[in-house]
Amino acid sequence: MSAWLNLLFTFLKIGAFGFGGGYAMLSLMQKEVVDVHLWLTRSEFLDIVAIAEMTPGPIAINMATFVGHELFGFFGAIIATIGVVLPSFIIVLILVHLFLKIHQSQKVQSALSGIRPVILALIASAAISLAGDAIKDVFGVFIVIISFVAVVFKKVNPIIILVLSGIAGVIIY
């Protein structure tokens, strides 16, 4: 039973302190799931990130569901998903009432301006940390560059990039 509680509390912590959405939460998830609890290897974590990215829904919820299922099956998936969602759900319920009253405040706007760059840093941290496991050779570098250019500068739909990159992976590897 303590392993189940450990799973729940780990994802409650991730949900409570993973500000900025799923991508910003990746570095915290990686630290907890891979480094602290050793539930997954870096490679397994990266595979789940890829799968979670391809499936509908928020990446943090998908990640929690996959990790929970990997550890304890169906009920593990439910426990991890509840754990990662519950803090945000409670916080949003509280904040929506407060925010509607104070969102025009200069202090609130200033605080949000200070938080936004941190979110970008958390996303970049996760990307850099996972890059070594994701990019195995020159073909991987090529796929990263082409995908980045296509999404950022050519505004190609990310789903198309994922499908084409999967096909390229099958052909190249």
Characterization of this structure:
- The termini are far apart.
- It is globular and about 55 Å long.
- It contains seven helices and no strands.
- Helix 2 packs across helix 5 (106-134).
- Helix content is 85%, strand content 0%.
- It has helices at residues 2-17, 22-36, 42-54, 59-102, 106-134, 138-152, 158-172.
- It is mainly α and 173 residues long.
Topology:
Layout: H1 2-17, H2 22-36, H3 42-54, H4 59-102, H5 106-134, H6 138-152, H7 158-172
Features:
173 residues; single chain; globular; mainly alpha; 7 helices
The major pleated sheet works out as:
none
- Uncertain residue segments: none
Strand content: under 5%
Q: What is the SS-derived class?
A: mainly alpha
Task: Give a brief outline of the structure.
With 173 residues, this protein is mainly alpha-helical. It is built from seven helices and no strands.
